[in-house]
Amino acid sequence: MAVRRREILWWMTGAAAALAAPRVSAAPIKAVLFDAFPVLDPRPVFALAEQLFPGNGKAFGEAWRTRLFEYQWLRALSGRYADFLDAAEGALVFAAKAQKVDLTEEKRTRLVQSWLALKAWPDAPPALHALKQDGVRLAFLSNATPRMLEAGIHNSSLEFVFEQAISTDRIRTYKPDPRAYQLGVDALRLPAGEILFAAFAGWDASGAKWFGYPTFWVNRAGAAAEELGAPPDGIGSTMDDLLRFVRARR
């Protein structure tokens, strides 16, 4: 029987954390840690899947996306780490078999490499520049590889915006492992309560909240809230919403 996403999260973070999320102080926000995807738009990856497999692309892309995160969490749990792109390739092959599509070597390469061609959402650069002008320190904290983050920054002309691009690859695990969130505290040398974590996925917002960060969920997909006992401190659908939240906490 397939392991369900919420069961993996429970095992990874621990039952005690799920039962009692820590209270986050209302300290002024001095820095924002971003998951990759509030900033970088992943939709072209799945648009390419539809282009390569007309009529099957949506189901295929969803199967690929779901298995990708499951593979990351399962590898972290088992100590069998593979980085984002390697996990993505394994999940891609599985999804092709499950959806019974012909995944040629050329299509396989194009789909995996498409993660290196991501660009920022249209609303991201103006909001990021506004935050930086406000004196807020900015960094990535992502499961994406360093190469993915560097490519996304370059593709989006965001050089000199981010203080650091922190990948969980450096400790060979994935969020929501608490050690992954600790990387942000160690890199910025600020208390967790002064660092806002900006998540793309609800589960990541919960993981960051469990760790002790104030959290903002950039819920671009309009997804349902997770029932994990750790709601984000703020929710919005755009980076403009995030900007307003940060300014209110300065």
- Calculate the terminal CA-CA distance, rounded to whole Å: 48 Å
Radius of gyration: 18 Å
- Biggest beta sheet summary: 6 strands, parallel
Sequence of strands across the biggest β-sheet: 3-2-1-4-5-6
Mean pLDDT: 91
Strand content: 5-15%
Secondary structure: number of strands: 6
CATH architecture descriptor name of the largest domain: 3-Layer(aba) Sandwich
Low-confidence stretches: 6-25
Helical/strand content category: alpha/beta
Number of domains: 2
What's the tally of helices? 11
Envelope shape? globular
Per-chain topology:
Blueprint: H1 5-13, H2 15-19, E1 31-34, H3 43-52, H4 57-78, H5 84-99, H6 105-113, H7 124-133, E2 137-142, H8 146-155, E3 164-167, H9 178-188, E4 195-199, H10 202-211, E5 215-218, E6 234-236, H11 239-248
Parallel strand pairs: 1-2, 1-4, 2-3, 4-5, 5-6
What does this structure look like?
This protein has 250 residues and is α/β, with parallel strands linked by helices. It folds into two domains: 12-40 and 118-248, 3-Layer(aba) Sandwich (Rossmann fold); 43-117, Putative phosphatase, domain 2 (DNA polymerase, domain 1), CATH 1.10.150.240. The chain is built from eleven helices and six strands. It has helices at residues 5-13, 15-19, 43-52, 57-78, 84-99, 105-113, 124-133, 146-155, 178-188, 202-211, 239-248; strands spanning 31-34, 137-142, 164-167, 195-199, 215-218, 234-236. A six-stranded parallel β-sheet has the order 3-2-1-4-5-6, with helices on both faces. Helix 8 (146-155) links the parallel strand 2 and strand 3 (164-167). The termini are far apart.
